[in-house]
Amino acid sequence: MELNKNKFFKKWIKNAWPYITGAVLLSLFQIVMLASTGNPWGITATLANWGAWIFQKIGGSPEQWYYFNRPEIQSSFEAGFFNDPGSFLNLGIILGALLATLLASQFKIRKIKSKKQVVTAILGGLLMGYGARIAFGCNIGALFSGISSLSVSGWVFALFLFWGAIAGGRLLKRFFL
Amino acid sequence: MLDERSDITPGVSLTQSKSVKKAKKNQLPFGIGLFILIFLIGIHLSDVSSKLGLYWLIGNCLGFILEKSRFCFSAAIRDPYLTGSTSLTRALLIAVAITSIGFTAIKYGAFISGQPIPGQSYIVPVSFTTAAGAFLFGIGMVISGGCASGTLMRVGEGCQMQIISLLFFIIGSLWGAHDWDWWNRNFIMKGKSIFMPDIFGWFGAIFIQLLIIALLYIAADKWEKIKLGGND
Q1: pTM for this structure?
Q2: Domain check: are B144 and B114 in the same one?
Q3: What is the ipTM of this complex?
Q4: Of A8, A102, A132, B165, which alpha carbon lies 20 to 30 A from A160's?
């Protein structure tokens, strides 16, 4: 296809971008977020809402928990999925990544290769979900947004995140690789 | 073309990196179709509320950027220890530096015109919970092969493992929300939120921040040279 030989297509659609390009563009969109929405980028608070809404559908009552009555959380929680900007942000990230993958013809269902992968996915997911909730966010919210907001909490998060990553690396080497 | 893939997949040996994706067939038509779909959804959401449309737009852009630049935040933290590579770490430091400058400018502008400072939601109390949560998150992101943004990105790429990871991320988040009250009563509410300009002034704060980032950058650069040697 002629397109594959086009310089612009190759550089921006087909090939991977350098990390520095990502760094600059992600920063740009962080600033766009803050300037246009009044809030920096975050992912995990929305995931807790997703969990709560699903839990409600199967009969649970998370609305009785202290967390979902916090002023910062309550309005988005009560507004529901279809009115939640954060939900569309997260879904957008998935589709944006999918779009980039398809345009570069790199989409492929990457199957799970072993039981160990399932165990690490389950354990890792639980740890991340729990840790992010109590630490007010993840690499994006607590670290990227937190530090960039000139909050000492961001730096403290980064420090212990780094140690946790080392511990995780040791676990991986010992049990899962 | 050598793609820097810094993904570590459990169950697959460390020396065997994730296979470079080969173009199986031309997926461009699907991509264009998806683009149109994303666009139409955006139009619909904007009709409901401009805020929803805006978040949808930003989300898609972020997902696109993350994927194209293979920007894995968890690898940025993990690789210095696991492989010795700090290229992502250094890119992350640059991102934090640029974002810090932009955020501070916006916040300062609001401050001096007497308006409430926007985006303070991540200025949160520093307490044992910050440490515990970060530590747990660090373990989780390394063993599952991606943090929140990485997981969403890889779901978009077609990775089955990350779909499971996302599902349990949601469950873990709910569990954390359930326990939040306990953590708050015992630790969080006893902690202090520290906004650096309150201590160092606006210019002092951004200067110290950029200084720390610069020092970390130099350290990361040296680290990779020590661990991997020679060329970048």
Answers
A1: 0.92
A2: no
A3: 0.96
A4: B165
